[in-house]
User: Fold this.
Amino acid sequence: KNELEAAQSFLESAALTNI
Assistant:
């Protein structure tokens, strides 16, 4: 994986916890 994929995964996780 690259940095972009890691960043996207992090943002997706943050979005889920922001409900």
Remarks:
- The chain has a mean pLDDT of 91.
- DSSP finds one helix and no strands in the chain.
- Residues 3-17 form the longest helix (15 residues).
- Residues 7 and 14 are 10 Å apart (CA to CA).
